[in-house]
Design goal:
- It comes from Natrinema salsiterrestre.
- It holds the Pfam family HTH_20.
- This is Helix-turn-helix domain-containing protein.
- Helices cover about 35% and strands about 30% of the residues.
- By secondary structure, the protein is α+β, with helices and mostly antiparallel strands.
- It has a single domain, classed as Arc Repressor Mutant, subunit A, CATH 1.10.10.
- The protein has a 4-stranded mixed β-sheet. Strands 1-6-5 form a 3-stranded antiparallel β-sheet, with helices on one face.
- A hairpin with a 4-residue loop joins strand 3 and strand 4.
- Helix 4 crosses helix 5.
- The longest helix has 13 residues.
- The radius of gyration is 16 Å and the shape is elongated.
């Protein structure tokens, strides 16, 4: 099953660099799913993830790394006017389609509408902290 041609106009994309096993492993993890839910509407630092998801800091760092490697969250730098900068994470997909074609697992994702985010493509954010 391939959604590449017919669904491309609906935002589905397949990235050959995405590791299907990494995506499935991350989606099967309770803490990762909690992080995805917490970062769906706003970007969070690992400290904020730890607090909102009620997980230890070490777990938050491990899980956001797992999610980043699976291309399920994107990293950006939060630049504070105080000079302290922090990495923050945000969910970067809307839906995941898993298909099996001739024994190969394929992952396709829909991405949020770029027009909905005024800073689409920006790799940093500014905070006044």
């Amino acid at each position: 099953m391939s959604a590449t041609n017919s669904d491309a106009r609906r935002g589905w994309h397949s990235d050959d660099q995405t590791d299907p096993q990494a995506v499935l492993t991350a989606l099967d993890d309770d803490a990762c799913r909690a992080i995805l839910e917490a970062t769906a509407e706003e970007s969070l630092t690992a400290t904020e993830v730890s607090e909102q998801c009620d997980i230890p800091m070490s777990t938050a760092y491990r899980k956001v790394e797992l999610l980043t490697e699976a291309d399920l969250v994107e990293e950006q730098v939060r630049i504070n006017t105080s000079g302290k900068h922090a990495t923050e994470y945000r969910k970067c997909f809307d839906d995941v389609l898993v298909s099996i074609d001739d024994g190969n697992i394929e992952i396709e994702m829909t991405t949020p509408d770029a027009d909905a985010d005024t800073d689409a493509g920006a790799s940093y954010a500014v905070a006044d902290d």
